[in-house]
Amino acid sequence: xxxxxxxxxxxxxxxxxxxxxxxxxxxxxxxxxxxxxxxxxxxxxxxxxxxxxxxxxxxxxxxxxxxxxxxxxxxxxxxxxxxxxxxxxxxxxxxxxxxxxxxxxxxxxxxxxxxxxxxxxxxxxxxxxxxxxxxxxxxxxxxxxxxxxxxxxxxxxxxxxxxxxxxxxxxxxxxxxxxxxxxxxxxxxxxxxxxxxxxxxxxxx
Length: 205
Ligand code: ADP
Ligand code: TYD
Prior knowledge:
The chain is of the alpha/beta class. It has helices spanning 16-29, 44-54, 62-86, 97-107, 112-123, 138-145, 159-175, 189-200; strands at residues 5-9, 34-38, 90-94, 130-135, 180-184. The protein is 54% helix and 13% strand. It has a five-stranded parallel β-sheet with strand order 2-3-1-4-5, sandwiched between helices.
């Protein structure tokens, strides 16, 4: 049986990493064979593309940025995601295509319809079974992320950029409400965990 494909999304500082580690532990304790991966990245080539994409000394056209995200994703699906799911392994992925719509689409201004063409080209029918969107205001994300010593190309953006990114995520969630669950991530970590258990427990074997 095909494994479950779960993605985590949210603006920088929303709490994805915190919840990802905890969720991975939660599933493994229930006997799920699980692989944790991330985007951009997850393969040797994808990690090289990630280096270019996050390098603040490497400016690029917004469509170049969008296409590189999808190029890394194509590789990731082919080498990691599809084979693992086919063998019944579960995947938890730290960001996926919703991030491209939110950051490159809403944040940078890349055309939403063109991104949909790329999504169809690269993914075909493949979509996550569940996407957890950790939603916070940009000010909260920035405060939580703290004073990052060497901010990357995205982290150096201003609050208005992250507000557009947040709006982009919420638009995706409205467009695909059955897949995406919006989680109010301003409440305590414990409260969020209780909510996560409610959402993911029914998926467990
Ligand atoms: P992300 O991976 O989304 O960038 P992190 O998981 O690294 O965010 O969280 C950023 C910081 O915020 C960490 O120090 C984490 O402990 C803290 N944090 C995460 N969620 C919450 C929360 N619900 N309430 C308070 N602090 C939080
Ligand atoms: P991530 O590793 O999640 O950063 P962090 O752990 O600091 O939150 O993601 C790296 C950055 O890449 C993040 O700022 C969002 C950005 N990104 C896009 O702009 N588009 C995409 O499609 C993806 C997957 C990530």
